[in-house]
Amino acid sequence: MFISGAWSEAKSGRTFAVTNPATGEEIEQVADGDAEAARRAIDAAHDAFQSWKHTTAYERSAILRKAYDLMMERQEHLARTMTEEQGKPLKAAMTEVQYGADYLLWFSEEAKRNYGETIPSARADQRFIVLQQPVGVVAAITPWNYPVSMITRKVGPALAAGCTVVLKPAEATPLCAIEVFKVLVEAGVPDGVINLVTALDPKPIGDEFCTNPRVRKLTFTGSTAVGRMLAGKAAAHMKRVSCELGGHAPFMVFKDADPVHAAKGAQAVKFLNTGQACISPNRMYVHRSAEDAFLTTLTERVKKLKAGSGFTQGVAIGPLVNEAAVAKVARQVDDAKGKGAEVLTGGMRLTDGDLGSGHFYAPTVLNGVDPSMDIYREETFGPVAPVIAFDDEEEALALANDTEYGLAAYVYTRDIARAMRMFEGLEFGIIGINDINPTSAAAPFGGWKNSGLGREGAREGLGEYLETKMGGFAI
Ligand code: ADP
Question: What is the number of H-type helices and E-type strands within the chain?
Fold first, then answer.
């Protein structure tokens, strides 16, 4: 753990194992923190806030810029840590480190653009001035699927705004968090401004974050169930909350789209990170006239995806995070099969050779998925592409919106008017129009409905860490 500028073990002396999901082998033991450690970290962040909030935007910007440079210098080291701990192929891990560093760079720039406002008054003797000030101590909880970028996406804007931070990373990926902290510390973040509490059991730490009066803001990325529970607890203490939660992205292919191009895009985005992404397509609606061509290309390409250790050249499908994840994917696929879906490829756990000791599931294409199946509503977080045929645009839009989630949606069409109708009609926060990568540190990321609250990245990302102060001056 890292509290008040010092690396430490847990006071209890307890540790927990971090394992490699591709092999099941233990990598390292990490400090197992508890509510007392969280309290100490919050106190440290509270004390450090008293001076950090008075630093200039230019000082904070320079530190974040240095952190960006250091992270890029260590890109391969961080990527290797990620592949070992989280499982994604090394090339994808390199891309994620770049993406994570992008948030440091972006917010080093945004730090200097925290503008206020003057507002004309109806009274000649009055002036209104609006300031944006740092909200205070930020408690952050991050997931394992993007274990570097989900940290910088929160810590970057928090530091830029002048906030101090206590981070609890996912229990599956604390080593990436430790490496990110080393970068930030070396870049010059002062003692107490960032604090790291690692733990096997997240509950007592989450409770402390939600109830401790010194925490002014909770930022969470993870499942909708946990986010809803934490937001509810934090609401009782009137804390600012942002949540980036689950998704169930529709991927829509219209009759005027090139079905082969769309299928290539579908394969690329669906199987990224072995489907363990909140913006991963979970329902592929394909116009009946394009179905054959789409399925042929998709299935051909999915059959070629190689599963294995992320360190092996040519591997595209890493392991799932744990046994529970494999069981969930298997349950959804079996349920769909039982209700009439056709398995075009995959559909089983992979156990050949070395794969048997890891958590591998075969990349899978399911056709004929319908609303009676669990996979139609539940987030899969695994390598399964469920395909559904449709006949008309209005029906497809209604089906796409028929979900409790509202994070990402994808549309393939060459008709500009249809593209605009979909862009306006989809009830989601992120829409890719003929684009499978609608994410960037410069663009607001976040969901509607049960996919969350608030936005990360972009101009909005800084605003999440600021409080508005209005001054009325009588002159
Ligand atoms: P996933 O299903 O993707 O693992 P979770 O929501 O369980 O998503 O985990 C995301 C993050 O939330 C992790 O850091 C995890 O430790 C944390 N978390 C899970 N349960 C709780 C809880 N009850 N209180 C606080 N944090 C939690």
Answer: 15, 22
Q: What residues act catalytically?
A: 244, 278
Distance 31 CA to ligand 1 centre (A): 18
Q: Where are the domains of the chain?
A: 2-246+449-474, 249-402+408-433
Distance CA 322, CA 55 (A): 43
E strand residue ranges, 162-320: 164-168, 194-196, 215-221, 240-244, 249-253, 281-287
Residue whose tokens read 């952190």: 67
Which CATH fold topology does 2-246+449-474 show?
A: Aldehyde Dehydrogenase; Chain A, domain 1 (3.40.605)
Each residue of 207-225: pLDDT tens digit? 999 999 999 999 999 999 9
The CATH superfamily label for domain 249-402+408-433 reads Aldehyde Dehydrogenase; Chain A, domain 2 (3.40.309.10)
For ligand 1, the distance from its centroid to the CA atom of residue 452, given in whole angstroms, is: 14
Residue 26 CB partners (closer than 8 Å, separation 6+)? 17, 18, 19, 20
Angle formed at CA 288 by CA 334 and CA 415, multiple of 5 degrees: 125
Nearest-10 Cα torsion for 41, 108, 246, 214: 30
Instruction: Return the residue whose CA atom lies nearest to atom 22 of ligand 1.
Output: 203
Residue 436 has phi, psi (to 5 degrees) of -95, 0
User: Per the confidence metrics, is the pTM higher than 0.85?
Assistant: yes
- Strand 6-7 to 2-3 pairing: antiparallel
Mean pLDDT, residues 85-113 = 98
Q: Which residues line ligand 1 (CB under 6 A)?
A: 141-143, 170-171, 202-203, 206, 222-223, 226, 230
Helix (H) or strand (E) holding 437: none
> What spacing in Å lies between the alpha carbon of 147 and ligand 1's midpoint?
13
